[in-house]
Amino acid sequence: MPEFKIVISDPEAKADQPVLKVKVKGDEEIEYGEEEKSQRRLPTCKANPKLLEKLNAVHGIITVRIRKEEKKIKHTCKAIADEQVGEDEVRVSLEWLGDAAGVEEAEGEVFRAKAWQITVTSPAADQLVGLRIGDRFDGAIVGLPGYQLEIRGGSDNSGFPMLPSIPGPVKKRVLLSGPPGFHPREKGERRRKTVRGNTVSHDTVQINTVIVYPKRRKKEQ
Fold this sequence. Notes:
Layout: E1 3-9, E2 20-27, H1 34-37, E3 44-47, H2 49-55, E4 61-68, E5 71-81, E6 89-93, H3 94-101, E7 105-112, E8 115-121, E9 136-138, E10 148-156, E11 171-176, E12 191-196, E13 204-212, H4 215-220
Parallel strand pairs: 1-13, 2-6, 3-5
Antiparallel strand pairs: 1-8, 2-7, 3-6, 4-5, 4-7, 9-10, 10-13, 11-12
């Protein structure tokens, strides 16, 4: 049975989106079970509705970032709007915070998530087999009802990338002059590399997608 890691990119989460300083607090009531640890479901967190509005988190998906010594630790979660939470704090799973940073509370930052990953298994994953780069599917599969996701690429279990120019679920060696599959160090450099075709198959491991927004939203911007 197929199992895919779906990488979801949000094109409206711009580089200049606000990054706000918050107090990150562990909450023992927030579940962090096997579904969350295996990335089959986004972890949940709690945030004040006013904070989510400032972040323009239209999907309610935010990234919390804290520091442990010199290392940055990120936690992308589905925020539950809770007016009992202070506007300058985010509550996350106490278990996650303890495992990740060894603390119950930390200074951190929060921003609208730019990308995240969900693992999809059968029967939902069966719907994706046979789709090609450029095809779209229902975002409800990954918890985004009402939106379409467009396939932009992917890779197999050996890391070989999918190429839009090669039809079918094949694996073959081709001469490449640029990405995906090859990043030349010199101008005009070409190399023969193993790649995958443009079609999702049972050998596919990762599927890269982007959220498709209605055209009217783009015009408004």
